[in-house]
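Problem: given the chain below (313 residues), write out its structure.
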Amino acid sequence: MLLALILVAPLGLQGNAFADKDDCGDVLSSLFHADGKAWHETKDGHQLFTHFIPPKKGKKSVYVMVNGLVYSSDRWDGLVKELTKKGHGVLRYDFLNQAKTLGKQEKVVYRSLADHSDDLKGVISRHIKDDSEVHLVGLSYGASIATEFAKTHPKDLKSLTLMSPLVVSIEKYTPSGQMARSSLEMYKFWGSHAYEVAYENMYRGFIRNAYQVSRYPDVSVSRYQDALFELGKAARDFDLKQEIKAVKDVPVKLILAGAEDAPAKADILKVREILGSRGGEGFTEIDGAAHAIPDDSPVEGAKALVSDGYFGK
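Solution.
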């Protein structure tokens, strides 16, 4: 079968002698990635693992999934199955420094939230047609990237959903974490370089001690630890309570896991209050669900994504 595709492919490309180079690449990609799995190259040459299932004929909705911190695109499988049964399209990917993408990287790199947003723009543009309705879904840490994207590319989205979202960096929920952040503040007196050196020494050491097993089978422990450091650094000053106020002209839905840890749940409910004051964006709480909703409650998570529930209804 593969040999037949190789032989037939050039004939198909001859139909338009003036075909754009990118168009040719699209055709070849579709031939060699019939299951929707492929690699997307960023503007600066990094390879991102992607998995795209187009919507069924007559449907325009495509749900774009942004992973949690130590997540991977395959962990959405159960929830994706529920969406695709209804004919919706789904695009998921492993962003830089995680999962299959990390396994292919030559080295771990720093990527700001704005950089991640730019990468996501490229992924969406590469896979999704202009007339599609793009519903962006950020899980946990992915909410920081999704929110950044919604701030800067509101016209590209039909909706934004924040699922078990990261509100602030998780160490702010523990006394030891708060103490560490407070102790770092004094280094700012000596300038940004002194602060960055102190931050790196403190948090690299913490990660080395706390994470001694890689979540990804083809990624070494040391590379996994370095990736976590860079991802954590990118979102260290993120505060969803403030950032969500900058999201304009994009309907926002919030999905809360009922069994979320109490401090994080309290912060998520504060975000709900902010959204409620804007006139009634959607909110769903999934009773008993754990933080990683796609793993724990894929059916309920899919229903929450496609529902039209709003405050007061």
